[in-house]
Write a structure and sequence with these properties.
single chain; SH3 type barrels; elongated; LSM_dom_sf; transmembrane helix; transmembrane
């Protein structure tokens, strides 16, 4: 204690050494606590105030992320701990037990604050990348989570090393000998990290992607990507949590290609009652000529058919529609659908555009519409699709076509009433 300032002052004031030594030790500890309190209250608060004021007043946006993740607040704790460490060296004898306890306490605090600072900086780095690269920040999430886990592990190793007096490398070598146990304990973390790296390398999923994974009941937007799980907010606002490795080992649908393209696909069929399909007679063609969208088509088609029949059949009898070429109501309706969609401003004409017949089934003849709407927003897309089929369903009777549907209760009642009326009129 001979080099302690408090001890020397007490001796100069005539206090015996046996009494001066514990008093000097208490005074040193009190001084250390006072320095810590003053550094925490004054210096740390002053440093935080200056940094906060500068970060909030400047014109840059990226540094606001440091405030959001409390990077400055966490790092500022180094000031009181550093002063504590210096005051311990200056005021306490190196060979005393209290020196060893406080010195190790200060070192443990350094490690803890270092780990917290590193984790805050990593979180800020992820948000900063999101600010610069928009939705592509999720490519770093797996690496950031892995780096945080590594920092926590290193922090635990150094804390144990400080408290036990062992070398950190000795602790790491012991853990290396427990590789099998470590692999078992961190199996999910290792699997998730590998899957996260694969997702990142292949760019399979990003924040904000609309994904569909029926096996997990997921159908909605990705709101969170971590090393262990991916969280999807479904359209009914429920949250589905999917293990990260499941997206690598199982199949799922990502709608990002649709959102980044020029339109959203409309693929739906009109089921035409086959019994209503027939050749167009002159009366029907005359009525169809009044439809503006197909007026030119009908005139051109009729001229082409007359010329073909004249060259092919000569004077043969064309009064029967099966002789030669004749227009059908389903063919004219298909031409009308094409003209209607070509004129629709909500349809992207530069993408795939098909109006085709599919294989007839027991439900009728499917007339499939395969086009893309310009607007990809869900509600608007559904409205565009509904408007198209509202119109086409209402237009079918003008072509003397019927939409196929199973008989309903109303149809059966009507049929029963008609049969009953016919039986009542039949002669006895």
């Amino acid at each position: 204690m001979s080099d302690n300032w408090f001890y020397r002052q007490l001796l100069e004031h005539g206090i015996a050494g046996e009494v001066a030594e514990p008093l000097a030790l208490l005074a040193s500890i009190a001084a250390i606590l006072a320095i810590i309190i003053l550094a925490t209250v004054i210096l740390r608060r002053l440093l935080r105030t200056i940094c906060y004021r500068w970060l909030t007043k400047n014109r840059y946006r990226w540094d606001d992320i440091l405030l959001d993740h409390q990077v400055v607040d966490t790092v500022s704790w180094f000031v009181p701990i550093l002063l504590m460490n210096l005051s311990i060296d200056a005021l306490l004898p190196v060979d005393s037990s209290i020196y060893l306890i406080l010195k190790r306490t200060a070192q443990v605090c350094f490690v803890l604050i270092g780990v917290l600072s590193v984790n805050a900086a990593l979180s800020a780095a992820g948000d900063l990348f999101r600010l610069l690269k928009m939705k592509r920040a999720d490519v770093l999430n797996g690496f950031i989570d892995a780096a945080k886990i590594v920092s926590y592990l290193l922090g635990i190793i150094f804390v144990v090393s400080i408290l036990s007096g062992m070398s950190p490398w000795g602790i790491i070598s012991v853990l290396g000998g427990m590789t099998a146990v470590t692999m078992l304990v961190f199996k999910d973390t290792i699997t998730g990290f590998v899957a996260s790296v694969q997702l990142t390398a292949t760019d399979m999923v990003r924040l904000g992607d609309w994904v569909e994974m029926p096996s997990y009941g997921a159908d909605g937007d990705v709101i969170s990507i971590s090393i262990h799980t991916i969280r999807v907010q479904n359209w009914d606002k429920t949250i589905t949590t999917i293990p990260t490795y499941a997206l690598v080992s199982n199949s799922f649908k990502n709608w990002r290609g649709m959102t980044e393209s020029g339109g959203r696909r409309i693929k739906r069929s009109l089921m035409i009652d086959i019994d209503s399909i027939r050749f167009c007679d002159p009366e029907l063609l005359k009525r169809l000529h009044d439809i503006r969208l197909i007026r030119d088509y009908l005139a051109t088609r009729e001229q082409e058919i007359r010329e073909h029949n004249r060259l092919l059949l000569g004077e043969a009898d064309c009064s029967l529609p099966i002789n030669g070429r004749h227009q059908t109501n389903i063919g004219v309706f298909r031409a009308y659908v094409i003209a209607y969609l070509k004129e629709n401003p909500n349809i992207n004409q530069d993408m795939t555009f098909l109006v085709r017949q599919l294989q007839p089934t027991e439900h009728g003849l499917p007339l499939e519409i395969y086009v893309f709407s310009k607007d990809k927003r869900w509600a608007v897309y559904e409205a565009i699709q509904a408007d198209i089929f509202d119109h086409l369903l209402a237009a079918l009777p003008h072509f003397e076509l019927r939409f196929f549907q199973y008989p309903s209760g109303h149809d059966l009642r009507w049929l029963g009433q008609r049969n009953g009326a016919q039986e009542g009129q039949a002669p006895h």
